[in-house]
Structure formats: C-alpha cells, structure tokens
Amino acid sequence: MTLMLFLLAVPTLAAALAAMCLRNLVHAALCAAICFTGVAALFVYLGAEFMGFAQVIIYVGAIAILLLFAVLLTRGFETLSPLRARQVPWPVGVMAALITLAVMTISVVSSPSLLRPRTAMVLRTRQVGDRLMTDYVLPMEAIGLLMTAVLIGAAVLALRDSNGAKRRRVP
To answer: SS3 helix, strand, coil % of the chain, rounded to 5?
Structure first.
C-alpha cells in the first residue's frame, strides 16, 4: 500500500464512519459529502479520471447538496407516526453487515467474469463526455429535471405546516 493511497483512504473511511454515527443530520450529511470527495480523489489517484470527476459532479455536487437542502428545509417537522421506531441492538447490525459482506464476497469470487481474459479498454474523459452529450443527452436532461423537481418539492413541503396550512414567515 502506498503512502498516498493510505493518506486518501483513512480520511475517507473516517468521514464514512462519522456519517453513520453522528446523530445531527446536517453534520452527517457534511461528512457524507467529505466521504464522496475522498472516493473521487481515490478514483483520480487510481487513474479513473472520469469516474472521479463524475463522483464530484453527481455525488458531491448534487446528491450531498440535495440531502443538505432536504434536511435544512424540513427541519422542525415531526414524524407522521407517534410511535417511535424500535432500537435495533448493535450486534444485530454488525451481524447483518457481516452476512451482507460474506454474500457479496462469495458472489464476486465465484463470478464467471473472473475467468475471462482481461481486455484493455481505456476510455478517455473526452470520449465519455462526447458520448454523454450526443448519445445520452436525453437521460442527462431527465436527471436534471428530476433533481430540480425534488428540490422544488422539498421547498413546498418546508412551506407547509403539518396540518397543511401555509407557514407564516417569522421576522
């Protein structure tokens, strides 16, 4: 393991752990954004520049910001159900994570695609960008419209009270 990989992986893993453990949603969302940025840096370090740039644009620039907007716009809303969710003991969560990891590892190791010879397929960032802006321009526009609709929906929800009446602006 090289020093640079270690210097990128440790803060990324620390931010992911903080995003899972923090109780404050704003802090958790910010830690998730830091984790997404660390993953993008790892992609760039490993030579997958397009994946790194896509990670920054999609996850850091869109998903994390959308998550922060949703948390900030819906702050103060009560849950719909008066019953609290049951707390799951942490050993159950650890056991579920280990089972999931084992199933994923077994499926990857037993995959027939590992037996195929590797082909050197190197796409440059410009080639991928050209394909996205020519062949896949409609899905890109649809994703942009969907994210705009989600943001508008969050703003509308934030302007309404729990009984459906519009909120008054507090000076």
So the answer is: 70, 0, 30
Say what the pTM is.
0.57
The tens digit of pLDDT for each residue in 120-157 reads 666 777 887 888 889 999 998 998 898 888 878 877 77
- Strand blocks (E) in 77-121: none
Report the number of distinct structural domains present in the chain: 1
- Please return the burial class of 85, using the count of CB atoms within 10 Å of its CB with bins 0-12, 13-18 and 19+: exposed
- Phi then psi for residue 118, to 5 deg, are -80, 140
97 domain-assigned: no
Residue 48 lies in a domain: yes
Burial class from Cβ neighbours inside 10 Å (0-12, 13-18, 19+) for residue 64 reads buried
Q: Alpha carbon 59 to chain centroid distance?
A: 5
Phi-psi region of 164 (alpha: psi -120 to 50; beta: other; left: phi over 0): left
Tell me, yes or no, whether 163 lies in a domain: yes
Q: What does residue 166 show for φ and ψ, rounded to 5 degrees?
A: -70, 145
Distance CA 132, CA 134 (A): 6
- H/E run at residue 137: helix 137-158
pLDDT of 77 reads 57
| CATH code (residue 40) | 1.20.120.1200
